[in-house]
Structures are given as structure tokens and as C-alpha cells.
Prior knowledge:
By secondary structure, chain A is mainly alpha-helical. Chain A contains four helices and four strands.
Amino acid sequence: MKKNNIVLYAAIAGLALLWFVCSAYAQDEIKLLKNDSFIDRERPGAVFSHTLHADKAGIDCLACHHIYKNGENVWDDSAETECAECHKVESGGKTMPLMKAFHTNCKGCHEKENKGPLTCGECHPK
Amino acid sequence: MYEFVSGPLVWVAFIVFIGGMIIKTVGLISLSKKKDKVVYNHLNLDWSMRSIFRWLVPFGSRGMRENPVLTIAGFVFHICLLAVPLFLLGHNILWDEAWGISLWSMPDRIADWMTLFLIAAAIVLIIRRIVLPEVKIVTTSTDYILLAIACAPFITGYMAYHQWMDAKTITIIHILCGELMLISIPFTKLSHMILFFLSRAHIGSEFGERRGTVTW
Ligand code: HEM
């Protein structure tokens, strides 16, 4: 009886650890971009792998992340990453509206590199 | 493939469509100046506008009042045919990216329904050509082909939006169908999208100014 309990506790602890590791691992990697700023959404969000782009394809962080000072991109690891902090849904000034900022960034590079998706359905799968 | 179809080919399609329609319209007007000078004696802005207006509003003409099914199907068909491609979010995003201009866009949900309405209206128009003997006798295969050309972008656009089969392939097919439709306009009776206004002005003036009767 006592032995059985230990096995049970060990199993529960093991499962909990597994869950913890899995969810921590999942949080590491962005897989779907679905920005809360879009209130009445038209599309289900966009598939995007941060690891694939930054690590496997070896793209410079500065190709996507930026903070402009005197026309120069001075972004570093500790700086703002959320596009919606600066790009608003409705363009209320000279910064690009949010959707256009995403599309220009993503599709612009895919077009230039001739790699990566360009049609709506490929990035916004149902 | 997608880049070619959504880039250079769009330019080709729009240039053929707009350029072709200008050449066709100017050509027909100058032909009428040679062969039918008389028209210009009684061409009248007031009668022209009245005739065009009467034939643009639902049930504005007698023929429309006598054929309510055709009228409803026809108006649904034409309204969706114009409004969906112009105000579709997907199209406006692409114009904005390509040319920095875009129109107001409607929610996809509405575009989706309007697409289905257009297809339903087209089915009514096809059935009418088969069922009514007086229509059947003046129907040629061209009429069906043109209906198919006009519907194809809607059927394939609907499939692309709902991601039936391979999203990329269907999108490419959709764009090709749209371009085929645009290119067909100047060379077929789809050119009535512009020539309608000339014919109505002509007939409206001919009957109104000259004979004092209305044509609606
Ligand atoms: C000429 C170049 C054209 C291009 C580049 C183009 C591009 C597109 C794209 C990218 C989509 C979105 C697919 C999605 O949401 O996944 C779309 C949808 C659609 N397009 Fe086009 N298109 C063209 C011409 C046309 C024309 C001429 C028509 C009709 C006359 C048309 C009617 C539609 C319709 C009905 C839909 C789907 C609407 C829905 O059910 O939500 N397109 N098109």
C-alpha cells in the first residue's frame, strides 16, 4: 500500500514536470501571431516561427525589430519587441498602421528573398 | 509563379482592359460620326440622362417590370459583380501594397455572402436561357462562355478564401481567372459595361427628342 502510494506520487510529479517542461518550451517559441490590437478580426492570425527565421534562416534581428534614432536602427535585445507598441491599428500619424507594418515586413522580405509564403491562405490558415 | 501572376500579368490585364475600352469607345464614336451623323442632330443630354437613369434603377423600365425574376437576378448579379472585387479586403490590401491606394473595404463575411448571391443569380440567368424558348432561340454558346468567364473569379475566389484544396494554387488560378475576365471585356459583349451608357443615350435621345416617347 505504501509502496503503491510512492509510485502514484512519483507518477503525478513526473507528469507535472513533463507538463511544466512542455509548456515552458512552448512559450519559448512563437508559432502564431495574433495581435490583440485587432478587435474585429477578419483572419485567424498568422503562422510564424521565430526560431526558423532568427536561427535556422539566420536572419538578423534588425531585419524585423527596430528603434529608429536619427535614421539609424539602434534596436538591441533589451529593447521593445512588440510592433503594436508603435504601430497602431488606425494610422494616426506618420508611422505605418499595424497590419501594413506586418505585411510590409513579412511579405516584403519573402518577395525579395523569393522564399516564404505570399498568399493570404498560406500565412492565415483556417 | 504567384509573383508573375500577381505582378506583371495584373499590369497586362489592366492595360488591355482600360486601353482596349478606350480604343473601342473612341472607335465606335468616330464610326458613328462617319456613318450615322444624323444621331448628333437630336442627341440630347436631358433625354440621355433620363434614359440611362431609368435603366440603372431596378424596375425603372417596362421590360424590367414585366420580367421581375430577370430583373432581380440581373441586379443582384451586377451589384455583386462590381462591389465585391472593388471593396474586397484582400484586393484592397494588395492595391495598398502595390500602389499605396485603397478603397473602403467590407467585412469578409459580407463579401462571402455576396459571392454566393452572385453565383445563385448566375444560375438563374443560365436556367432562364435554357427554359424560356424566346430566350433560348437567341442564345449562343458565347453567352454561356461569357457567364462562365464572369463567374470564374467568384467561384475560385470563394475557394481561395475558404482554403479549399491548396491555398496557393487556388489563389493563382483565381488571379488568372480575374485577369481573363478583365482582358475579355473589350473584346466581347462584356464591353456593355461602358457601351451601355452610349446605347442608352442614343436610344433615349432618338425616341425622346425625335419621336417624343420614352423607352422605359
Ligand atoms: C486581376 C487580379 C486579381 C487578383 C490579384 C485577385 C486577388 C485575390 C485575392 C488575393 C483574394 C483573397 C483570397 C483569400 O482571401 O484567401 C481574392 C478573393 C476574391 N476575388 Fe480576386 N483577384 C483578382 C481579380 C478578381 C476579379 C476580376 C474578381 C471578380 C470580378 C474577383 C473576385 C474575387 C472574389 C469573389 C473573392 C472571394 C470573396 C470571398 O468569398 O470572400 N477577383 N482575390
